[in-house]
Every structure is written in C-alpha cells, then in structure tokens.
Amino acid sequence: MSETKKPETSEVPKYPNVEIAVKNFGPIAEATIDLRPLTVFVGPSNTGKTYFSTLIYALHGIFDGFSRIPLPAIFRSLSKTDHGSQKGLSAAFFSSEEEAQHIVSKLAASNRPFTFSDLPQEIRKLAMSNFKDSIFSGRALEVELGRCFDIGSVSEIIQKTDSQTDEMKVALKVYEESQALWNFNIKTDKSEAIGDGYLNEDMILLTENKWLAAESLDLEELLVLCPEIFPGLNVAQRERYYLPAARSGIMQSHRVIASSLVGGATRAGLTPLAVPTFSGVIADFMQKLILHSETTEPDERITYLADTLESDVLAGQILMKPVPGGYPEFLYHPKQIEDEVRLTRVSAMVSELAPLVLFLRSGIHFNDTLIIEEPEAHLHPGAQTDIALTLAGLVRAGVRVVVTTHSDWLLKEIANLIRIGELKRKGVQKVKKMAQVHWLLPEEVGTWWFQTDGIVKQIPFDPTEGIEPKDYEDVADKLYDSSVNLQDLLEEVNREGKEWD
Asked: Residue 311's CB: how many other CB atoms inside 10 A?
C-alpha cells in the first residue's frame, strides 16, 4: 500500500454488542453470530453467507444501525422541525426551561448514573411507542425482509427440510457487558409472523463522572449534549452499503438498465408484461450508483484508502463523469495514459473494485456499515492481501465491516494484521510501517464458518495458525497427498523406464 498521506487514526469506537441469532433461516439451520468491527463469513457456496449478510442489512435498515437505543426515523423526522434548529428540537423534547434544568441537575449529580428512566416523559413515550408500534404493529421487518430478499412473503425464507419445523426465528440482542439494552424477536410460519421486544428503561446512559459543572447549562446547551445520550438525535444517519457479488456486471451495465427502467416507467412505456424485479440490496446498490455525487464532504481517513487502492492495485483512477442524461458515467484512467476508458472495456478487476473506490471516496463515513460479498473476486493474490489492508483501515476509521469470502489469502493477511495489533498493544514499535493505519485486534474480528449441515460455528483466531477453516486444511492436505503420489509415480516411471498404462 502507498506510504503517502497517511492520516492519523484512532481507536475503534465503542459499539454496543450486537448478537443476531436465527433458526430455519434459508440454508441456515442454526446460527448465533455477534457482530464485530470486522465480521467475516467463510464456507462453501449455498450455505447461507449471503442470506445472513442480507439479514444484517435489513435489520440495519429497520433500526438505523444498532445503536444503544432503537429509534428508527424518530429523530430524523424531528430534525426537520423548524429546519432542524435547536429551537425546534427543544420544543419537541422539553416543555419548559424548568424541565431542562431538572435534567441538568440529574446530569450533574455525582452520586448515581443517568438512566433512560430519567429522560423526560415525552421522550420515553416517543421511544417506547415507536419501538413497539412501528416495529411490531407495522410489520416493518416483514416488509424490509421481503424487499431485501425479493420475496412476496417471509415464509419463503423458511428452510424446507424433513428434520426442521416449518417455523423460522430471528432474534436481535443489543447489550453491553454490564447491562442489557434492548432486544427484538420475530418468529414466522407459513401463516403469520409474531414479533416482540424489550427496551431496558433502567439502562445507564451516562455515568456519574461524565458531566462536570453542568448546573450552568441552559435549555439550548443541553440540546447540544443530547446527541451523546441519543446518538440518533444527530441528523447524520448511519448509512448502510451493500456491495453484491454481481457488482462487476452492474457497474458495466447500470446506465443501460437504469435508462430502460425509467423509459418503461412512463405511462406510454407501461406494458401488461411482468417486469423482473431486483432484490433490495441490488436495487439500493444501483440507486447509490445512479445518485452518486462527489460533493459530500469526505472523511480523509477513508479517502486515503480509496487513493491507495487506486495507486497500488488499480494502477489508475476511477472517475465519475456527469452526462446530460442524468446518469453518471464511470471511467478508468490508467497511469501514464492520457485517455480515459469506459468500464465496459476494462478488466474485471477494475469493475469489481470501482464501486468500492467510489463509496470510499465520497460515501462511507464514520459509524456506517459496509457489507461486501467476495471482495477478492477477480483479484490476484497480492491484490487480495491489499483488500485486507483496506478492511482494517475501515475498521480503524470507525466503519463496521461485514465480508463474505472464499479467499485463503485474505484470511491469512487478516491474521497478520491481528498479529500486528497484538504487537502494538504490547508496545512493540518494530512492526510494519503500515501498522499506523492497518492493524486489528483479536476482539475486533469475528470469523464464522458456514457449513453444508446448516450449523454456523465460530473460527477462533489462533496465534500460530491464524484463521484457518478446517475445510481449507482438508483441501490443502488432499492436494498435497495427490501431488506426492503423482510425483512418486513419475519418479518410478523414470527409474524403471515404464510406460503409462
């Protein structure tokens, strides 16, 4: 990777613990997975890696990420009040200056922490009603699962085997080491879906040492501090990005597909023929491409990763060129060549990495979630290890990352980055220069093995072996045995002058 323009990095933000459990979910008979800053899914094809990745994407959409308090869309709607001004938000949250001062006194108290139950009644009521009514009565998860998986009914996801019941379960639990925060459960059969959940009103929002000299705060100043209590109060929404395995083909044809769909959407273009549909993850990916803009204020820690991918892997730049039709055209500008090349004429490697570069440059920010299917696709082994560095850099920049992979090279480099992180934690300075940006800690990485029997198991990091799925070992042993046997046979033929049978 490039050693120029390395930005300063910091520790990964403290995420709440997120555990997602499923039973009878598509190819997955049973899985309980806790999301880490970097979560890796490995295993044979058709074992559920994409199913679980899509589930994470859907749940993220329902709950606007996995924050300490689930408040989907509440604060985004409130932030529009009075053009998002603090005055408008104040009116939405606090009925009087006295109520605000009451909160301030609790914040300033040194004898106990500040809990959810200490919040104004209207805030608690709003949170609880939205959590229960919108999520469960509104069947939001059913709708989002149907959209993301491109299905008419959630029952279509239920695993169809003789050994399983016709019931699917999904459970989401958000917690910290010292306390439960909230959970969500849904089970569905062929006829109905039933959901329930729990929001801990005794959860600690701020410790007693967090606020000093808060007695002087007025109503408006308190509102400025509220985003630390309710991260959702920040107008900046936690975004989700999904890079599907088919991204190369989409990058090469998205303008044709988009223009055809828009042309057919006019009344004159409507026909009685059935129109094929996209899954939600594909549709969202295409929409982000169509609406792509580089005017968003970038994060230098993340744009650095885009720059190094371009210089060290792509040997050129990915460019966006606005065109009169409204759909951006993406081009590749190779190094030392004046002409720009359309993505329809570039190698599969370039079109595979182009959307990642685009999203890194002007889309993905701190606290977002990025899901990538097979980031190693069409890449040389050396480039696959560079992708591991990119993933680690995203973790260091505060992005939660989920990947599916079949690459042993990617896993080996992730293991090396964990070893670098351990050396840094022990104070060892003699490590690679790249360790300033690219390193991981064992607790930041979770690797999960998806099997043909439908049971998902964790692969622990081993300081000696690294991250080594047993199936990979079996393949390596089989290849080694085969090569030894063939070499022995060749040597025997050469010694005795025998001919092949």
From this structure: 15
DSSP string for 300-363: HHHHHHHHHHIIIIISEEEEEE--TTSS-EEEEEETT--S-EEGGGS-HHHHHHHHHHHHHHHT
Position with higher pLDDT, 288 vs 476: 288
Give the integer Cα–Cα distance in Å for 176 and 90.
29
Those residues whose C-beta lies under 8 Å from the C-beta of residue 166, and which sit 6 or more positions away, are: 24, 158, 189, 190
How confident is the model at residue 236, as a pLDDT?
A: 47
- pLDDT tens by residue, 332-390: 999 888 888 888 888 888 989 999 999 998 889 888 999 999 999 889 999 999 999 99
- Other Cβ atoms less than 10 A from the Cβ of 318: the count is 25
CATH 3.40.50 corresponds to the domain 17-67+238-267+277-468? yes
Q: Which long-range contacts (CB under 8 A, 24 or more apart) does 74-80 make?
A: 74/126, 74/127, 74/130, 74/232, 75/230, 75/232, 75/233, 75/234, 75/235, 76/232, 76/235, 76/237, 78/233, 79/233, 79/235
Sheet holding 168-176: strands in order across?
28-35, 17-25, 168-176, 179-188, 193-199
Whole-angstrom distance, CA of residue 4 vs CA of residue 177: 39
β-bridge mates for residue 31, sequence order? 22
Tell me the mean pLDDT in the region 38-66. Answer: 92
**Amino acid identity for residue 61 in this structure:** G
What are the extents of the domains in the chain? Answer: 17-67+238-267+277-468, 68-237
Cβ-based neighbours of 408, under 8 Å, separated by 6 or more: 472
Separation CA 240–CA 119 (nearest Å): 29
Tell me how far apart the alpha carbons of residues 260 and 278 are, in angstroms, rounded to a whole number: 14
Compute the distance between CA of residue 184 and CA of residue 144 in angstroms, rounded to an integer.
15
CA nearest neighbour of 420 among 402, 432, 407 = 432
List of residues 6+ apart from 248 with CB closer than 8 A: 348, 351, 352, 377, 378
- Extract the tokens encoding 146: 């149907």
Buried b (16+ CB within 10 A) or exposed e, 91-114: ebbbeeeebbbebbebbbeeeeeb
Lowest mean pLDDT among 8-12, 170-174, 226-230: 226-230
Rounded CA gap, 22 and 33, in Å? 9
H/E run at residue 318: strand 316-321
* pLDDT tens column, 88-106: 445 555 566 666 666 666 6
pLDDT band for 448, please (50, 70, 90 cuts): very high
Residue 398 gets the label, from left (phi > 0), alpha (psi -120 to 50) or beta, of left
Nearest residue to 43 via CA among 368, 448, 359, 435:
448
- pTM, to two decimals: 0.84
